Amino acid sequence: MSDFSVRPLRSGSSGNLTLVEHAGTTLLVDAGLPSQRGLSSALSDAGITWDDVDAVLVSHLHGDHIHPSAVACCARHDVPILLHEKNVRAFSRRILSRSPASGPLRTFGGEPFSVGSIGVAPFPVPHDAEGLTCGFLLSARSGEREASVAMATDLGTGGNGLFERFIDSDLILIESNYDPAMLAGSHRNHIDRARVDSDVGHLSNEQAGKFLVRAMQESRRLPRAVILCHLSADHNTPALAVATVREILAGYGFGAVPVHAARRNGPSPRFFAMEAGRR
To answer: Domain 4-274 carries which CATH code?
Structure first.
């Protein structure tokens, strides 16, 4: 049985990069660091290079999730960029036009597909990026065992029915961007604060906790871990995000589920949805 793991290498408004590995397949979800050197350094932190990467899966077109520097790296190493078909036109205008070259571009729609041994089921989430913002249900199989990872790292609200995508997941990566009190007292202007707090902005710690409760209440099994992503540097702290979500989960009887905060400027630990030798 092969390991199926996820490791956020960077998570935040300054750049997002998540490594997913299973049975020889290496997938990056987003690549939003603003320099080729920074991207290569982040991969090196995880013990891999661009030559190991099978594809880059893009959630949406904000620069902290896909950057021209990543497009240039993909071109140099012939790494496919996987993009929702509704994002192609804006991607060409906003990203490709700023990159000296492009790697192979492959599109997907609403149907599941595979990258090597990793299954990918995209689903739309509410966010104010041009085009469509996607979350992903990633899956892998070894023998009779199948594991899944649900992730959505930018979304303004849980939305009716969205939590259903997270039911019975072995790992959950979910945005926990801000603390409402810290946002209200922020130095940012009111337009920016209103955008963050809107239904197409970002998810607060409390919203993330309640979203997780809904998913767990409907699940037959609980996740092995929850990883909180895209924490604001100005309106949140890792300790506050984790404490808030843990308190909400504990109030509904889910206090045993481990909760972690992805690191902003460095690699997080490797989280396993499926481990070799474990059933």
So the answer is: 3.60.15.10
Q: What is the tens place of the pLDDT at every residue in 186-238?
A: 888 889 999 999 999 999 999 999 999 999 999 999 999 999 999 999 999 99
DSSP track, 112-154? -EEETTEEEEEEE----SSS--EEEEEEEEETTEEEEEEEE-S
User: What whole-number distance in Å separates Cα of residue 208 and Cα of residue 224?
Assistant: 17
Domain ranges of the chain: 4-274
Dist. CA 75–CA 39, nearest whole Å: 14
- Between CA 134 and CA 136 the distance in angstroms is 6
Kind plus residue range of the DSSP H or E element containing 88: helix 88-94
CB of 171 within 8 A of CB of 229? no
Closest by Cα among 22, 63, 85 to 271:
22
Q: Which residues contact 155 (CB under 8 A, 6 or more apart)?
A: 125, 126, 127, 133, 135, 162, 175, 202, 203
Q: What is the DSSP letter of 270?
A: P
Q: 133-179 pLDDT, tens per residue? A: 999 999 999 888 899 999 999 999 987 789 999 999 999 999 999 99
Q: At what angle do helices 68-77 and 36-45 cross, to 10 degrees?
A: 70
